[in-house]
Amino acid sequence: MYAVAVSTFAFIEWFLSAYRIHAIGFSLGNAEALAFYTITMVGHFFFFNLATRWPKIVRCWDKVEKIFLSNPYQPYGRRLDTRVRIVCCSWIALGMIEYSLYLCVAFIGIYYTLEICPDSSAIPESFWVEIRSHYLILNELILFIDDQLSQIILLSCASNLYFICLQLYNSFKNNYTDLLSTFYFWFSLLFVIGRASCAILCAASIHAASKTPLKILRNVPTKYWNLELGRFTYSVTKDTIALTGKKFFFLTKGLLLVMAGSVVTYELVVLDQVHDGSGSSENDTHP
Questions:
Q1: Count of structural domains within the chain
Q2: What is residue 143's predicted lDDT score, i.e. its pLDDT?
Q3: Which has the closest alpha carbon to 32: 158, 163, 172?
Q4: What are phi and psi of 55, to 5 degrees?
Q5: What percentage of the chain has pLDDT greater than the value 90?
Q6: Alpha-carbon distance 235 to 229, whole Å?
Q7: What single DSSP character describes residue 95?
């Protein structure tokens, strides 16, 4: 009922914002509220859709989790369980982080299992078959989770980028003379940038964790190399294991640089337009 009430009020706010824009005319500045409530309603729809599939997600998640709560991963699984409880108690509002922790620590659990293995000569080929199968199961889980979350991820990244660019646009259009307005501008801009960066870095840690077994695999002497070890190494090296935004982009650390480049390009274009507008005004005033 709470979610339905919030969605209803969001629709009312969206309707009022659309009516206001219809009355006074459309511009980037006065479309901010309309964009916000549009993103809110679309997000509500995506989360309602996710809720209907949640039992299936939990069953799939539980099936994979049982593997990493048993030997040889049991010590790391128990530690992860404690971490997640701490995160949940401390940051309820950041609930999605706990799922990234599960995925990351599962990959790191594979790394630690390889790290404590005995001498490479004593490792049977069946061990590499088992580890590789678990690695591929994790990969399949991430693909499944990505199918459920990718549209929400795309909406989140797009909205963060939009509001960062909007705040920069407002900085050229508005003169913040008093302390309160200046504080609000910098706080809101840094908040959106920080939120976007934290979300991307959290999700990108899955990709980084999926590559950690390479630190061990590359140190295995050539004389102990076998077919299954080669297949495992190839999978870790070549597969891009990461969440995506509807397959348009992968959530890796490099995405932060791409978004930063887009923001800088946008700022330069706006700055150029502002300077051209100022020059035109001066020429009109002083022929």
A1: 2
A2: 92
A3: 163
A4: -55, -40
A5: 19
A6: 10
A7: T
